[in-house]
Amino acid sequence: MSPDTQKTVLRSVSVEGIGVHSGEPAVLTLRPAEPDTGVRFRRVDLDGTPEIPADLAHVAATDLGTSLCEGDVRVLTVEHVLAALAAHRVDNVMLELSGPEPPIRDGSFVAYFDAIKEAGLTDQGVPARIVEVTDPLEVRVDSGASYVVAANSNLRISATIDFEHPAIGRQFGTFDITRQAFESELATARTFGFKADAEALHERGLALGASLENTVVLDDHRVLNDELRFPDEFLRHKVGDLVGDLALLGAQVRGHIVADRPSHEGNVALARALAGQDRRKRGNGVVDIQRIMKCLPHRYPMLLIDKILEFEAEKRIVGIKNVTINEPFFQGHFPDHPIMPGVLLIEAMAQVGGLLLMESAEHPEDSVVYFMSMDRVKWRKPVVPGDQVVFEVELLQRRGTVFRIGGVGKVDGEVVVEGELTAKVMDK
Ligand SMILES: [Zn+2]
Q1: What is the pTM of this model?
Q2: What class, spelled out in words, does domain 5-281 have in CATH?
Q3: Ligand 1 centroid to 245 CA: how many Å?
Q4: What does the pLDDT look like over 102-147, one tens digit per residue?
């Protein structure tokens, strides 16, 4: 089977068991899907059997596992089944799930890896989506995870973990993510947790299904399970998790990732950066004015951005508005005392911020940004004809498709307006 064409499972196969966080039983059935479907979850226990695409736009949370959401519907801890699918290079599959969380089984990836092996694969003859890293990339998140990616003909992951625990310490290794290597080196590596954290997690409704049957548990001194499957099982599991989180890209990644203390949060940030680099490479970036005109639904007289000066995907954007006496609003605001209306300064800031958010959408042209709330808005100085307003907007927080951004507008370096906005990116 060619690695360059799309694949799905040959027949349906099910995995049954409890979820590690919810503690709830569920059956996960992998069903064949048409080309270009991607990987999708379907909650068959809920009215209307709602679907959630397993992609970056639907990431809901990344603390202790990666969860997805579409509106109020959630699926928790998706990374193990996604890793097994990625290892087998399955592009299209419907994951029917009868509860909130895929079964944890023994805490490793092997139940899913073996289920897919048992189902078999079929080649769908359509070109697969491939993200090939050409320019080096660096990603860092505040919690400490960092990544460097360089060109490589296949996915290769080098990772370091460092835990101040006598049974873990510092572990390092390099793994080529082929189907065979995943099976022999990563598939059976189990998730792990610290006994000292258990109570706090239970209070938050997490780790309710965790036990020695599905988790390597450590007290302050040692591993409580009978034995480890590899001396560096902890590292291997983290590498498997990274493979699963990267699958949210909806494409095979070809590149060498060097990860330092990888986390789900960092893995998802890395996947977003890779997606952004790939879009820009394909000429789908949104940094020039023509792209802005295409992506922003606004037109004269409501288009309030003239130019984007700086752009850092998933981080910040700087745009300008040259305010001239010819602006239509000056005719009435006010006839002999022209001042740019304060709400239009917020609108201009929202338009600049909207572009930052739209860049995160898979198909910016088909997406629209709806603003949901604004906070801490302050107008500091009036804006008059001849002023150039520079809007600096940065991403403060992201939860699934809901974003919080903070921005300031400055004239000659002095703040004229500031505020925080919440917005949702949706399909048109
Ligand atoms: Zn895991």
Answers
A1: 0.74
A2: alpha beta
A3: 10
A4: 999 999 999 999 999 999 999 999 999 999 998 899 999 888 999 9
